[in-house]
Amino acid sequence: MRTTFFPPMKYLLALLVGALFLTGCKSTYDITLSNGRQFTGVSKPVLSKKTGKYHFKTIDGREGAVYPDNVRVIEPHREPYEFRPSAPKK
């Protein structure tokens, strides 16, 4: 009688592929507007048919929305982003 603790190889392969897929889904995006202003979003901007705007979540947790006519480019953020809260205004 053969008893092994390890699951069959096909299950391990499926688990590995699933883990790689999930790690690739969470990335930040840079949204650059035609006036030069730039936003960094933690979710991929989605164009809403209802409002006609790109909706996304910003790094500080707020919901953002911009019209497609104002967007110059949307691209994945290249560097790791470190959130630093701004100093309070005096």
Key traits:
90 residues, alpha+beta, three-stranded antiparallel β-sheet, 1 helix
Strand content: 25-35%
**Range of helix content:** 10-25%
Q: Strand sequence of the main sheet, in spatial order?
A: 2-1-6
What low-confidence regions span 5 or more consecutive residues with pLDDT below 50? none
Decide which structural class fits the backbone. alpha+beta
Quick check: average pLDDT?
78
Instruction: Characterize the overall form.
Output: extended
- N-to-C SSE series? HEEEEEE
- Give me the Rg, rounded: 20 Å
Please report the total strand number as a whole number: 6
Distance between the termini: 76 Å
Describe this protein's structure.
This protein is of the alpha+beta class and 90 residues long. Helix content is 19%, strand content 28%. The chain contains 1 helix and 6 strands. The strands form 2 sheets. A 3-stranded antiparallel β-sheet has the order 2-1-6, with no helix packed on it. It has a 3-stranded antiparallel β-sheet with strand order 3-4-5, with no helix packed on it. A hairpin with a 6-residue loop joins β3 (46-47) and β4 (54-57). It starts with 8 loop residues before the first helix and ends in a 14-residue tail after the last strand. The mean pLDDT is 78.
